[in-house]
Amino acid sequence: MAQTMGRVAGKKAFITGAAQGLGAAAARKLAAEGAKVALADINVDGAKAVAAQINAAHGAGTAFAYALDVTQEDQWVAALEAAAADMGGISVLVNNAGVAGDKPLEQMEFDLWKRIMSINVDSVFLGAKHALTHMRGHQPGSIVNISSIAGLIANHNSPAYNASKAGVWLLSKNIALYCAKLGLDIRSNSIHPTFIDTPILDPLSQRLGKEEAHAKLGRQIPLGHIGEPDDIANAVLYLASDESKFMTGAELKLDGGISAM
């Protein structure tokens, strides 16, 4: 099946954490709107499976898969180089990979703190640092960083998640200003979801049952329900497209109204 024209036709997107959840949804959405997509994940078999589904839907050569531990700089360099070769460049970076799993402050082991910070924040630094090498030759470009509403609003029991997602938020602005100062047509923005129906909710669903878990979380949201992966994928699509060409250093809150309270 031939690649169809769409809102991101001709774009070449590199997406982390793409084996499932928000990353997989973003990859599918971008591919459906005309982009080539590189799916990177530590779970490379999962990334390959999603890439195969995308290629079946949109034609061979639309999607590619790569092994990537986002905390390892050498793996970033290798995966980006391979993706640029396979897609003919990189114009969009979606830093989506992330984890939760906090403990309250006094119960938090330092190693757990460092692991969450490394996966959630170091990955954005490494991704932007090394993706810019490839994006310079494929402007206009866009860096989309998945933060969280927890990066803007704190709670009492997620010190590393709060701190790491706040770090993603401000780092996104730094990257935006850095690129603008250099005269690059490469934008950087962050997305801040609330609870979304992805595997990150599995621990709560396993404890309470999926229906009750989603209802419990939904009661915290003014709109009364949690979000769907496509709610975030649609925002990724907008930020990756030239429709958002005047938007940089900004944040999109997709939180069902939580931050309005």
UniProtKB/TrEMBL annotation:
**Signal peptide range in chain numbering:** none
Give the SUPFAM superfamilies listed for this entry: NAD(P)-binding Rossmann-fold domains
Q: Membrane-crossing residues?
A: none
Keyword Oxidoreductase present in the record's keywords: the answer is: yes
* Keyword set, alphabetical order: Oxidoreductase
**GO MF annotation: an example:** D-xylose 1-dehydrogenase (NAD+) activity
Q: What is its EC number?
A: 1.1.1.175
Top-level taxon in the UniProt lineage: Bacteria
| Alphabetical list of InterPro entries matching this protein | NAD(P)-bd_dom_sf, Sc_DH/Rdtase_CS, SDR_fam
Protein family according to the UniProt entry = Belongs to the short-chain dehydrogenases/reductases (SDR) family.
| Protein name per the record | D-xylose 1-dehydrogenase
Annotated organism of origin:
Caulobacter flavus
Origin organism lineage: Bacteria, Pseudomonadati, Pseudomonadota, Alphaproteobacteria, Caulobacterales
